[in-house]
Write a structure and sequence with these properties.
This protein is of the alpha+beta class. The strands form four sheets. An eight-stranded antiparallel β-sheet has the order 2-1-15-14-13-12-11-10, with helices on both faces. Strands 3-7-6 form a three-stranded antiparallel β-sheet. A two-stranded antiparallel sheet has the order 4-5. It folds into two domains: 201 residues, 3-Layer(aba) Sandwich (Beta-lactamase), CATH 3.40.710; 226 residues, DD-peptidase/beta-lactamase superfamily (Beta-lactamase, 3-Layer(aba) Sandwich), CATH 3.40.710. It starts with 6 loop residues before the first helix and ends with a helix. Helix 2 packs antiparallel against helix 12, helix 3 packs parallel to helix 7 and helix 3 packs across helix 8. Helix content is 30%, strand content 14%. The protein is built from twelve helices and 15 strands.
């Protein structure tokens, strides 16, 4: 029989776990690492992924499990470990959002501020409308998991540009209701402008703002949800509000006070990135220019001399560094003796519901919180806070057992079945945890 839980009650159950399990954690000594390793290894030896690196830490930073397996055909001679910089793409978003909430706590920004207070260049943004007067967003998938409201794409183009009819607020950038989008809508009439403007090639933040000011919005601010460049614009708001670059804000408010190493926007001297990979043609190769189309023709270059930072997709992280960042959420907003976010702020973030179903809750602050279906299917547990990125990176935070997990890989368009890995790995892990009757 399927367990059904009222989502409103479910949210507060999660909060109960957040406070109940802190301070009473014990590390199990009987994880069967050979079984976990065999699952990791299978997805590499069977060519599903070019590499896998998994790191699990408890709330104190103790490594509970770590495994790296590299496909020597895809990445001959590559060395990858917990200190390797990885492109984390959308896993950048929660970092930027947490910076914004830190600024909100300090009274520097309000979520209800109009965006033009910080970016007056957006005063005359236009909205792309279909010939019958609807926002183009209704003909697209605003989320990877949601179908378009109208799948008759032949009605979408050509677009008409009209004045937007509402005020874009900072909160619209947080919850993806501002109207910015990625260049992968599959509608040429709306993808074309962002591809032509090529925002990744902006020389600095002001240049990026000028580029975005020339692009149409995909819907009126506040009208509906559409995943896109909204969090990158949020980072630009943070820069204008503080007169500091997003890179400096990251270091000043997160890395330095909490002693986190491994979160950054730039490569250091002598560092190199793991090359992107695709299995689209039935073998591993480097994606062609423009295939990784999320930002148009190009992807961020992470150059040490760059002066533009994409808060929604442009961060690099080591598994060690990102796991340390995630432990902030496991420790009620605190890490290494520094209180970054107040408990009330965290409660507000995880109880702000955008969409709810048996699979879980989409919050307005990036986290997806798993529901009873995950528990019933045996692919995890109820109440996991999770997220992921464009090239297959993912994470989850478990308050019940007291750990954070980071899964690193780099692949665009993997072999079919590749992303079943996380469900299979978590299924084995949580079976073992349930049998151990212990928490980290």
């Amino acid at each position: 029989m399927k367990l059904i839980i009222n989502p409103k009650i479910f949210v507060f159950m999660i909060l109960g776990k957040l406070f109940l399990f802190n301070g009473c954690n014990k590390t199990p000594d009987n994880l069967n690492r050979e079984k976990l390793n065999s699952i990791v290894d299978k997805y590499i030896t069977d060519d599903y992924l070019p590499f896998l690196h998994i790191r699990i830490e408890d709330k104190y930073g103790k490594v509970i499990y770590q495994r790296t397996k590299i496909n020597s055909t895809a990445l001959p001679g590559e060395k990858i470990n917990e200190k390797s910089p990885i492109r984390i793409w959308s896993m950048s978003k929660i970092v930027t959002i947490s910076l914004i909430m830190d600024l909100v706590e300090d009274g520097i920004i309000s979520l209800d501020d109009p965006v033009v207070k910080y970016i007056p260049e957006f005063s005359n943004l236009k909205v792309a409308k279909s010939p019958d007067g609807r926002s183009i967003s209704v003909f697209t998938s605003g989320s990877s998991f949601e179908p378009p409201s109208d799948d008759r794409v032949e009605l979408a183009c050509p677009i008409n540009l009209v004045d937007n009819d509402s005020i874009m607020k900072v909160r619209h950038l947080v919850d993806h209701k501002a109207g910015f989008y990625y260049a992968n809508t599959q509608l040429e009439c709306i993808d074309g402008p962002i591809i032509d403007e090529n925002p990744v090639m902006a020389s600095n933040s002001d240049s990026l703002i000028n580029i975005l000011s020339r692009l149409p919005l995909i819907h009126n601010p506040g009208e509906r949800y559409h995943y896109g460049l909204n969090t990158t614009v949020l980072g630009l708001v943070a820069e204008r509000a503080t007169n500091l670059s997003l890179n400096k804000l990251l270091n000043k408010r997160i890395n330095e006070p909490m002693k986190i190493n491994g979160l950054k926007y730039k490569l250091e001297e002598g560092e190199k990135l793991i090359p992107p990979m695709t299995y689209k043609d039935g073998f591993y190769r480097t994606p062609k220019k423009g295939e990784m189309d999320i930002l148009g023709r190009n992807t961020p270059n992470y150059n040490k001399d760059q002066e533009v930072y994409f808060g929604g997709s442009g961060m690099l992280a080591t598994s060690d560094g990102y796991a340390d960042y995630l432990r902030i959420w496991l420790n009620e907003g605190e890490l290494n003796g520094y209180q970054f976010l107040d408990k009330k702020t965290i409660k507000k973030m995880v109880t702000s519901v955008r969409k709810e179903s048996g699979y879980g809750i989409d919050t307005n602050f990036f986290f997806f919180i798993t529901g009873d279906s995950v528990l019933v299917q045996g692919t995890g547990d109820i109440g996991l806070w999770e997220g992921g990125g464009y090239e297959g990176t993912s994470f989850w935070i478990d308050h019940k057992y007291g750990f954070v997990a980071v899964v690193m890989t780099q692949v665009w368009w993997p072999k079919d079945g590749a992303f079943k890995f996380r469900d299979e790995f978590r299924s084995e892990l949580y079976q073992q945890l349930a049998q151990s009757k212990s928490v980290f």
